[in-house]
Amino acid sequence: MGVPYCIVKNKSRLGRVVGRKTCTCLALSAVNSEDRNNLNKLIESVKTNFNERAEEIRRHWGGGILGSKSAARISKIEKARAKEQAQKVG
User: Fold this and answer.
1) C-alpha span between 57 and 54 (Å, rounded)
2) What residues does the Ribosomal protein eL8/eL30/eS12/Gadd45 domain cover (predicted)?
3) CA 67, CA 65: separation in Å to the nearest integer?
4) pTM of the model
């Protein structure tokens, strides 16, 4: 689609762009000619840092670290499998 898309850290940062306290989303329909160059720089940085790396960012989300409940559940399942294998063998 080619639409530049990024996620901003918090609503107040985005709100500063539109002159409000907070803002959840922003769509630009018209840009002043003197601001066009700055907008193009912003679009290029957004595309390279977020849009083109979307698959990479999505794959590494979370870091693969389990919480205590999930780790305990997996540990319990593995112990049950090991016990079952031990009974089958001996």
Assistant:
1) 5
2) 1-39
3) 7
4) 0.51
> Contact at 8 Å (CB) between 11 and 22?
yes
Q: What is the distance between the alpha carbons of residues 87 and 89, in angstroms, rounded to a whole number? A: 6
- The set of residues, in sequence order, having a beta carbon less than 8 Å from that of 11 and lying 6+ positions away, is 22, 23, 24
pLDDT digits (tens, 9 = 90+) for 30-48: 989 999 999 899 889 888 8
Strands (E) across the chain are located at none
Contact 21, 9 (CB under 8 A): no
**CA pair distance 27, 31, nearest whole angstrom:** 11
